Amino acid sequence: MGIYARDVEDARREYSLRRLAELTGRLEPLIGAVGDRPLCVYATGSYGRLEAGAASDIDLFFLCDAELDGAFPFTVFVRLAAAVVEATEQMDFPPFTGDGQYLEVHYVERMEEVLGSPADDSINAFTARMLLLLESRPVFAADVYDRLLQRVVSFYFRDFADHPDTFVPVFLTNDILRFWRTLTLNYEHKRLKLRRLEGDALRAKKADSALKNYKLKISRLLTCFSMVAVLTSRTAPVTEAAVLALCAQTPRERIRGLADRGREAGGLVHKLEEHYEAFLEAVQRPQPELLAEFEDPERRKAALDDAGEFGDRIYELIRVTAADDQRLRYLLI
């Protein structure tokens, strides 16, 4: 990646951190209302990845330690949620998805209980857990965030004591792969609405759907497979501390860490860096401009072909950096 691109990346990171710090400052007065209750708030999405632009929205999750007598007090949550909404409005963030319907408290104990069950996805614990691990930054009670993140990572190390010399996090890798496949299936489900449209409404919806597909196949893919790639490249044993260190990195930092795995890996990482930077420059433009571009069938096809090439390079990077064939096998069977 060139000097200019690195400067642009640094500027996005600094902008993201400055905005997150301002949001944290606006929420600090709520510490007294929360008291000693172990609750944190963390950001995901472009802010969690430290690559936000002026038009970026912010996705927030509330996570609480369930070692309490009963659930988090509803009135306290309402105060905190209202403060979050007010702070984000004052900072000119776009409105929350679904008018804030996802602003709810998740409980670590419950998150572990439902892991892998049908309830995992239905109560949104799956998304909250995966984004916590793959692309999150604390904005309220960072000390609680650190402790609860460590606790969530520990879910995947139940068997480490039985295999301290040979342990690899297959459980965690499988959960990330499940998340990726759930994202792709959710996208296909939403495309069903296209069948009921025609004319201008169909053209506009196709553009919106294609733009979501473009982002899914690049930024969401990188979020998931940057972690998968690094975990697959590590020789046993892979420790809890190693995974926590990866959680602290952005997806780009994780991928960049594979550049020293040989000349071919270094070349692929360089191409991925350039590809991703071009993607960010493309999508961090006004939404009407983007949608107008994706209404053009030829430009839409070119963008999705570009996304396909990005996926090909991620696959090649995993192939050339995998610790051994057995680790590659775990990604399929």
From TrEMBL:
InterPro entries: GlnD_Uridyltrans_N (IPR005105), NT_sf (IPR043519). One of its GO terms (molecular function) is [protein-PII] uridylyltransferase activity. Residues 17-98 form the Protein-PII uridylyltransferase N-terminal domain. It comes from the Bacteria. Pfam families: DUF294. Gene3D superfamilies: Beta Polymerase, domain 2. This is Protein-PII uridylyltransferase N-terminal domain-containing protein.
